Amino acid sequence: MRRLLCSAIVMALSLAAFTSCSKKESVPKVAGDWNIISVTTKSASIGAQTVDVYLSFAPDGSFTSYQKTGSSARYVRYSGTWQLTSGVLSGEYADGSPWAGSYSVSVEGETMTLTSSSTPAEVSVYKRAEIPDSVIAEAGNP
User: Fold this and answer.
1) Contact 54/131 with Cβ under 8 angstroms?
2) What is the pTM (predicted TM-score) of this model?
């Protein structure tokens, strides 16, 4: 009965529910490399600024992000740690500062949607994509 209840809850929370009935979480499906394809407005831009973001979530809880905005001529590399608890993604940068907020996560096939906890909520959609060597080289490694 407990197994059936757990399965029903997981299905109800969609494919993005990355928890189990046990206290230990399974390896989340967010692990891997992602490239942003839209932000809130269904385009990869914020206002007049074009945005390109690559995210790499490692199964060990570390992440690397490569971000380029219209105001930046180059990709900028960020790193730190992430965690997924009850379908909510949060993290902190290598310097110890927390992310600006947390995100509810939905993964469907090769698409991941992050919805911020802020008001109004920002919705960012990513697709699985290998991070090009040129992006990594441009951002450099610390």
Assistant:
1) yes
2) 0.70
Closest CA to 56 of 134, 105, 140, 129: 129
**Residue 24 and residue 30 in contact, taking contact as beta carbons nearer than 8 Å:** no
Sign of dihedral through CA atoms 134, 45, 121, 106?
negative
| pLDDT one-digit tens code per residue, 60-115 | 999 999 998 777 678 999 999 999 999 999 999 999 999 989 999 999 999 999 99
Instruction: State the residue for tokens 């109004």.
Output: 120
Burial 15-46 (b: 16+ CB within 10 A, else e): ebbbbeeeeeeeebebebbbbbbbbeeeebbe
Longest Cα–Cα distance of the chain, Å, equals 57
